[in-house]
């Protein structure tokens, strides 16, 4: 049978005449007879309409067959996706199923997001093919629209696409009136659109197109408020978005299984020498390549390039492949294939001569040059729109003719380049290919040869001036709007050291040439994105206006007189940087200088006009700040204990406070006088709120009651009962007629404020709800739970329905707040972070991680410009919302870095965390190797002195020996739980390990056989070490007992128990080069024991007031570093000849203090034979520091950052801001005047804080016998939750007092008696209150 569409068409024509009722077309040559038998359309309008429908079906069928042919994909793997960008990576679904679910629903728009090359276009074509294949007459018509190919798609988009598909105006009108379309709009970002196409095309409005729209867009193209560009509008009301008609999905990177499936489909496409196994072996062996090829388009490039990249390479594990290198190899391979094609083809004489000329000039070079020039023209003359239309008669006098004209050279190069042609439309294979070639307009490696030598950073400005092309792309335009181009260029910096020097020279040029400022801004942005560290660099006088230095490292950098106008310094490391006289007008830091208080900050609240900020402290004081200057202007005193909650009245004239002293107060906001004291609660007040009318206030308490009061008189109005647990949060509705409460009983209850009656109650959620907030429009409630879950609820008049829920934090959410425009939700948590979310999608906008303690409260200013967060760390931090990272933050938080060690030669640094171990280059900070996945949850690591083995102690696998040469792991069986410490003997033959089992175990590292088991400790072994001569092993346990063993006889030779009090950090070590033992027990002191190996006599070599966790000696023995909660201290020890007579070092003898950590520092290790040390912190950072002597004068010591890996945080401690120009007063750190009052209630200085004995994660004390810690031990470490509290470690934070075990037992007994008494009194008070309430209602 013929393939002509008419031979496959079966048309039915309704009518009364049986002869004309059914028309079947079987053969092509009968079409004219068929057309002749039909009456002329002019004879009957109805018949004319019927005829048009017949021919329209024919056109649709022809269109369907054509599109099925064009949409066919050679390789397709169905992608997985997640609900939105903030969703967890393990919450995935098949995208095709979600798309089908969308098509079956009433929703109108589905947005598909994904990175460049994630497979959005492939999925769209596959979806179109599936819909066309299952299409039935009269059903929805799938219409694929390549948005970049449509001129002005914001108007008449569908008509323009149908005309390009050869439909006439009459057919288009018929389709508009009677048919539904499924629009598959591809490449929203490539069309350079910033409008809502659904709205501007008036889709689904009366008399308009009936559609469902699926639109795809790159994630990098979007800003924070992207949903407004896609969300449908309510019918008849273009000002209100219809959230219920919108859906989104984010394409996830390929998994290993999907990559293998792709390779299996790829291999048979053409003859190849490699099999699927060959490709997979290379992909898994080359470091970091599997992570790179999780992007489908990059995977395609890698499969083409791998045979060339690995040719002649023996050890694949040392190959370093970047994304830009894959593009380089692919392009060369593409041009080589086309060169061979032309060589074998029969060309015309003119084409052959032209081709010979191209060969003599270098065909590959000419092809790359053609694509680079085309990419430059597209960006410079076509606004970066990737699709170019060329018609010779119309465009022969335009720039297009140079790339698409009939000239033989142009034609041969065009046909050999990675371009796609569709009629008169031309484009690169992929948008990223266009960006790749455009990046080569900045730096083309083929024009500079091979430059692989390493050049030290001090060579800034040493490049030949001819490399600095002032007419080049770098100088002419800002590259910041093109993040993918910057990413390619940053990869190029890592690949070609010459380019790095080129960029540094451009930055240097800006010092003397103002016209180079744009190029310098581009250059330093690329350098920072490439991870180039400018610590200590001489950047005096550079001009980089508008540069993006987010996350840059500028420790101790010299930036005097620099032009930093409009520079983004969010999350930049500018510790000890000198910014004197720098121009900083419009410079963004992402946050303001923090407001420091003398006590922990419990709560905060903005005034309605945003001019003031009230801050509640632990000691009961309330500080008032002027938000114009951020200076403290008043302090209200009256409460006796912590201010748990604050709220301003709607008119701003009063402040409502609730305290742990069981009272609430109404204050005059102008003079600070107490207007009313609200008494009645029998336990601490946890939350307060003003009604929107200002006529009523509410208080909530741990006594399970919510009380409503008259704001004018202070009279009790209602007592709201029904809560079966403590009430942790309350919030009024928009009109004030309802109030929501929640707490320990895991329910949300909504009461009528006019009657005091319960009107709504939620279902039980299975988690303690810690906080809630009404949205400004009163239609939704947001809640935060103890387990870090954030949930939205639809608060209708008669129902309270659960909505979207997601994991927002790793610990309990302490507070949430809506912005007044309902755009954002801010949340704070005990995990020390503050996060900003899109209130509609739940999308994470930004994370703020500078707090060093629990964050108790968060509020958004009325104008939406700032977020204020109150913390246990005695600070209130102010974050700039508008300076949040453009784009979207990753959901995943960094893992705690628990341990680190250097290799014996000091070239590698090995780190251990909850995820697989990593090996860093100790000089550059580059990750050289990532250990296998099973090596995770690492507690301790040690390198053997011969450098051949690594001992790894973990939480769940005991001890593992790793062979450095073979990269094979061997598990040593014997430990029943986690291992705290491992140490090699000096000969590398023996390994000692200690952990939870209170035993020290010995192992033969050659055979892996278990050796001796040394018994003598009664608690967890925390630290151990071999003596330098290998004759002794010293160990210390949780109870502070130091044990000394002789290795020859394995006998316990000495034992000494130190009274460590409340401290639970015990570390022992030998001083390098001698047999003296040093020990530290958490109290800030270091004891040096006599060298008689009897543990009888000792003396202090260090005494400091701060608690310490770890200490480490430098290899020379002259320096010691100690770690603390959020800092590291460096000390210079006396020389050996002065050692015996020297007094112990005191706080004033500290050589340097290193701040900037937001979580405790778990370990510090010194680099062998160098004055460098590395720190591993629970915040997820690895930082390497260099000790510099005599830099600032004889005897002066400074510590400079060499490199770091981990979360970027704004660190500006020690930065010099003398005489800076344009920096607003609010961005300058100011010292608040101290407030001293005799009426202040003395407050203890430390508060009890439990630390997990396994991972040292801190937990706040609770009345329920430390239930948080017990739950953590059971769920995370699979340990018995009934563990005695004495097995736990203790830490301290400001705000309370810790006692020893006996005092704690006595306090527990007394507290139980007091609690029972309070309970009896509370019951009596409740009965009396209920009686009064009933009596008042009866009256």
UniProtKB/TrEMBL annotation:
Residues 1-21, 1278-1308 are annotated as: Disordered. Residues 109-268 form the NACHT domain. This is NACHT domain-containing protein. InterPro entries: 5peptide_repeat, NACHT_NTPase, P-loop_NTPase, WD40/YVTN_repeat-like_dom_sf, WD40_PAC1, WD40_repeat_CS, WD40_repeat_dom_sf, WD40_rpt. Keywords: Repeat, WD repeat. SMART domains: WD40 (SM00320). SUPFAM superfamilies: P-loop containing nucleoside triphosphate hydrolases, Pentapeptide repeat-like, WD40 repeat-like. Residues 1-10, 1297-1306 have a biased composition (Basic and acidic residues). WD repeats lie at residues 636-677, 678-719, 720-761, 769-794, 806-847, 848-889, 931-972, 972-1013, 1014-1046, 1154-1187.
């Amino acid at each position: 049978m013929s393939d002509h569409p008419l031979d496959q068409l079966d048309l039915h024509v309704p009518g009364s005449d049986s002869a004309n009722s059914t028309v079947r077309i079987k053969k092509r040559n009968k079409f004219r007879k068929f057309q002749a038998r039909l009456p002329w359309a002019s004879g009957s309008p109805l018949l004319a309409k019927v005829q048009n429908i017949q021919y329209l079906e024919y056109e649709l069928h022809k269109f369907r067959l054509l599109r099925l042919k064009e949409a066919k994909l050679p390789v397709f793997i169905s992608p997985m996706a997640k609900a939105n960008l903030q969703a967890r990576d393990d919450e995935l679904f098949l995208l095709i199923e979600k798309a089908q679910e969308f098509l079956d629903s009433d929703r109108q728009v589905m947005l598909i997001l994904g990175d460049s090359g994630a497979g959005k276009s492939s999925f769209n074509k596959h979806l179109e093919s599936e819909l066309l294949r299952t299409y039935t007459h009269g059903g929805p018509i799938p219409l694929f629209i390549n948005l970049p190919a449509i001129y002005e798609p914001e108007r008449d988009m569908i008509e323009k696409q149908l005309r390009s598909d050869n439909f006439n105006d009459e057919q288009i009108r018929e389709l508009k009136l009677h048919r539904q379309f499924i629009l598959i709009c591809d490449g929203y970002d490539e069309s350079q659109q910033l409008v809502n196409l659904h709205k501007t095309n008036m889709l689904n409005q009366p008399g308009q197109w009936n559609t469902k729209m699926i639109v795809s867009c790159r994630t990098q193209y979007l800003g924070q408020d992207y949903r407004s560009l896609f969300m449908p509008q309510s019918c008849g009301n273009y000002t209100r978005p219809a959230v219920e008609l919108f859906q989104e999905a984010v394409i996830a990177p390929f998994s290993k299984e999907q990559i293998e499936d792709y390779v299996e489909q790829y291999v048979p496409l053409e003859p190849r020498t490699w099999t699927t196994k060959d490709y997979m072996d290379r992909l898994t062996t080359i470091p970091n390549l599997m992570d790179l090829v999780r992007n489908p388009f990059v995977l395609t490039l890698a499969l083409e390039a791998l045979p060339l990249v690995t040719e002649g390479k023996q050890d694949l594990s040392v190959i370093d492949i970047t994304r830009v290198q894959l593009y380089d190899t692919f392009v060369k391979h593409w041009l080589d294939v086309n060169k061979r094609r032309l060589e074998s083809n029969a060309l015309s004489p003119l084409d052959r001569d032209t081709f010979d000329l191209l060969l003599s000039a270098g065909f590959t070079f000419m092809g790359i040059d053609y694509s680079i020039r085309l990419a430059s023209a597209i960006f410079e003359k076509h606004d970066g729109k990737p699709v170019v239309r060329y018609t010779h008669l119309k465009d022969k006098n335009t720039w297009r003719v140079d790339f698409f004209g009939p000239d033989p050279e142009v034609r041969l190069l065009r046909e050999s380049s990675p371009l796609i042609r569709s009629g008169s439309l031309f484009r690169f294979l992929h948008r990223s290919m266009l960006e790749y070639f455009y990046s080569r307009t900045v730096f083309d490696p083929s024009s500079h040869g091979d430059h692989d030598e390493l050049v030290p950073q001090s060579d800034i400005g040493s490049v030949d001036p001819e490399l600095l092309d002032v007419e080049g792309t770098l100088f002419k335009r800002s590259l910041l709007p093109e993040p993918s181009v910057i990413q390619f260029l940053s990869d190029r910096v890592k690949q070609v050291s010459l380019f790095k020097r080129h960029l540094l020279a451009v930055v240097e040029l800006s010092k003397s040439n103002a016209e180079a400022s744009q190029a310098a801004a581009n250059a330093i942005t690329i350098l920072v994105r490439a991870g180039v560290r400018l610590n200590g660099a001489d950047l005096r006088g550079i001009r980089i206006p508008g540069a993006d230095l987010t996350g840059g490292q500028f420790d101790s950098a010299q930036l005097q007189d620099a032009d930093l106008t409009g520079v983004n310094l969010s999350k930049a490391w500018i510790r000890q940087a000198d910014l004197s006289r720098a121009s900083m007008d419009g410079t963004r830091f992402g946050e303001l200088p923090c407001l420091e208080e003398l006590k922990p900050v419990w709560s905060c609240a903005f005034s309605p006009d945003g001019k003031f900020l009230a801050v509640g402290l632990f000691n009961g004081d309330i500080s008032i700040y002027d938000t114009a200057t951020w200076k403290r202007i008043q302090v209200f005193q009256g409460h006796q204990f912590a201010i748990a909650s604050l709220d301003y009245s709607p008119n701003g004239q009063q402040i409502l406070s609730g305290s742990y002293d069981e009272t609430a107060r109404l204050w005059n906001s102008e003079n600070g006088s107490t207007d009313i004291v609200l008494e009645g609660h029998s336990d601490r007040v946890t939350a307060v709120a003003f009604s929107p009318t200002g006529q009523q206030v509410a208080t909530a308490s741990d006594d399970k009651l919510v009380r409503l009061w008259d704001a004018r008189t202070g009279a009790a109005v209602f007592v709201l009962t029904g809560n079966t647990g403590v009430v942790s949060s309350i919030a009024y509705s928009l009109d004030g007629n309802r109030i929501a409460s929640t707490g320990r009983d895991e329910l949300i209850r909504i009461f009528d404020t006019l009657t005091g009656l319960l009107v709504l109650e939620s279902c039980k959620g299975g988690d303690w709800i810690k906080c809630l907030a009404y949205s400004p429009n009163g239609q939704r409630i947001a809640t935060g739970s103890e387990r870090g879950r954030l949930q939205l609820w639809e608060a209708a008049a008669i129902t309270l329905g659960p909505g979207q829920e997601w994991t927002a934090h790793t610990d309990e959410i302490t507070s949430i707040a809506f912005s007044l425009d309902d755009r954002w939700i801010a949340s704070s948590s005990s995990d020390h972070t503050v996060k900003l979310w899109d209130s509609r999608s739940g999308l994470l906008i930004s994370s703020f991680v500078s707090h060093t303690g629990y964050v108790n409260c968060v509020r958004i200013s009325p104008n939406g410009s700032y977020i204020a967060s109150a913390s246990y760390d005695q600070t209130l931090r102010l974050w700039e919302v508008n300076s949040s990272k453009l784009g979207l933050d990753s959901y995943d938080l960094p893992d705690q870095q628990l341990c680190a060690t250097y290799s014996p030669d000091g070239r590698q640094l090995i780190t251990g965390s909850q995820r697989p171990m990593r090996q860093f280059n100790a000089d550059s900070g580059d990750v050289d190797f990532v250990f296998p996945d099973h090596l995770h949850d690492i507690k301790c690591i040690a390198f053997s002195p011969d450098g051949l083995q690594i001992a790894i102690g973990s939480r769940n696998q005991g001890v593992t020996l790793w062979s450095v040469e073979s990269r094979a792991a061997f598990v040593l069986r014997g430990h029943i739980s986690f291992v705290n410490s491992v140490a090699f003997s000096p000969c590398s033959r023996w390994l000692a390990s200690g952990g939870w089992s209170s035993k020290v175990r010995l192992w033969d590292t050659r055979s892996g056989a278990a050796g001796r088991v040394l018994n003598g400790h009664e608690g967890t072994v925390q630290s151990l070490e071999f003596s330098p001569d290998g004759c002794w092993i010293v160990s210390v346990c949780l109870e502070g007992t130091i044990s000394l063993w002789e290795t020859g006889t394995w006998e316990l030779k000495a034992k000494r128990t130190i009274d460590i009090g409340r401290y639970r950090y015990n570390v022992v070590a030998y001083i390098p080069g001698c047999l003296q033992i040093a020990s530290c027990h958490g109290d800030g002191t270091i004891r040096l024991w006599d060298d008689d190996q009897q543990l009888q006599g000792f003396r202090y070599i260090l005494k400091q007031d701060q608690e310490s966790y770890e200490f480490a000696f430098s290899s020379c023995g002259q320096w010691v570093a100690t770690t603390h909660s959020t800092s590291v201290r460096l000390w210079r020890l006396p020389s050996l000849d002065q050692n015996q007579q020297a007094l112990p070092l005191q706080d004033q003898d500290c050589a340097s203090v290193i701040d900037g950590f937001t979580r405790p520092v778990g370990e510090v290790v010194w680099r062998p034979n160098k004055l460098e040390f590395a720190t591993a912190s629970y915040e997820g950072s690895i930082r390497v520091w260099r000790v510099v002597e005599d830099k600032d004068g004889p005897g002066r010591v400074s510590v400079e950052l060499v490199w770091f890996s981990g979360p970027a945080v704004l660190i500006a401690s020690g930065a010099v801001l003398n005489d800076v120009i344009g920096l607003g007063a609010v961005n300058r750190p100011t010292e608040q005047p101290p407030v001293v009052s005799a009426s202040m209630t003395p407050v203890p200085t430390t508060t009890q804080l439990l630390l997990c004995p396994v991972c040292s994660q801190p937990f706040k004390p609770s009345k329920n016998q430390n239930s948080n810690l017990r739950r953590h031990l059971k769920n995370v470490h699979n340990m018995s939750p009934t563990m005695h509290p004495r097995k736990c470690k203790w830490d301290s934070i400001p705000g309370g007092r810790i006692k020893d075990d006996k005092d704690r037992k006595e306090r527990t007994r007394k507290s139980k008696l007091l609690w029972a008494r309070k309970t009896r009194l509370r019951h009596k008070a409740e009965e009396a209150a209920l009686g009064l309430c009933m009596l008042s209602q009866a009256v």
